[in-house]
Amino acid sequence: MPELPEMETYRLQLTPLIQGMTITGVEVTRPKSLNVEPERFAQALTGSRIVRIDRRAKHLIFLLATGEVLLLHLMLGGSLFYGSAEEKPDRTAQVVIDFGTKNLYFIGLRLGYLHLHKLADLESLLSKLGPEPLESDFTFDEFQQVLKGKKGSLKVTLVDQTVLSGIGNCYSDEICFYAGLLPIRKVPSFNIEELNRLYQAMRTVLHEAIGYGGYMDSPLFAGDRLTGGFDARCRVYDREGEPCMRCRHPLIKVEVSSRKCFYCANCQI
């Protein structure tokens, strides 16, 4: 599932491609991916422009010139592609937004959605999300406050979107490894030094992942050399049985609250 770095990579790369461009048409093959009738959706978009693309947690927010917004959550298996019909990957697109000769394809929206809302409703729609971990004003003191009173495992806490926004299965494991902490430990067991390591690791790993285009290898456009570049740099995620890059012990995989979890049992404490 795309997480914060993947969605931020989409935002950064899409902005110069479609910002200010006039929408010339819309195609919807799965009405359930929308929250309004396809006719209403097409009418709202056609002839308008996307004036800005924002991100909140794992969502992309497309601000239309009309003042309405598109709220995108790709969920499991979703991806985006921008280009011509000939360039598009051989996967079904549930929604297509046309920009003249090129299109933005919303692919794999079987669980995800692309909803049309009034801008004024956006804050309440996203009100349950926790703070953004990379915001400059999200200090270590605030990080401690967010974790205060949490009783569950570190893994489950990090992926809880009401606690912190945008971290999922991949980056929770990568952050824990970078910090040298076991994801299966209970949050109350961490001392202040360990929490500081966790906070610094969180910011370092997420910034690094954005710089390398995230871990999901689904190019946004033909010739895209950035998207998915972090996959080769993952230290533990999906590396079961491989030697730990720090101590060479085999990495293990367990399930934590029905989520797969990868770590080194030797050098993470």
UniProtKB/TrEMBL annotation:
Its EC number is 3.2.2.23, 4.2.99.18. Coiled coil: none annotated. Residues 2-112 form the Formamidopyrimidine-DNA glycosylase catalytic domain. GO terms for molecular function: 8-oxo-7,8-dihydroguanine DNA N-glycosylase activity; class I DNA-(apurinic or apyrimidinic site) endonuclease activity; damaged DNA binding; double-stranded DNA binding; zinc ion binding. It catalyses: Hydrolysis of DNA containing ring-opened 7-methylguanine residues, releasing 2,6-diamino-4-hydroxy-5-(N-methyl)formamidopyrimidine; 2'-deoxyribonucleotide-(2'-deoxyribose 5'-phosphate)-2'-deoxyribonucleotide-DNA = a 3'-end 2'-deoxyribonucleotide-(2,3-dehydro-2,3-deoxyribose 5'-phosphate)-DNA + a 5'-end 5'-phospho-2'-deoxyribonucleoside-DNA + H(+). Keywords: DNA damage, DNA repair, DNA-binding, Glycosidase, Hydrolase, Lyase, Membrane, Metal-binding, Multifunctional enzyme, Transmembrane, Transmembrane helix, Zinc, Zinc-finger. SUPFAM superfamilies: Glucocorticoid receptor-like (DNA-binding domain), N-terminal domain of MutM-like DNA repair proteins, S13-like H2TH domain. Its cofactor is Zn(2+). The chain crosses the membrane at residues 60-82. It comes from the Bacteria. Residues 235-269 form the FPG-type domain. One of its GO terms (biological process) is base-excision repair. InterPro entries: FPG_cat, FPG_Glyclase, FPG_N, H2TH_FPG, Ribosomal_uS13-like_H2TH, Znf_DNA_glyclase/AP_lyase, Znf_FPG/IleRS. Belongs to the FPG family. Monomer. This is Formamidopyrimidine-DNA glycosylase. It comes from Paenibacillus sedimenti. The gene is mutM.
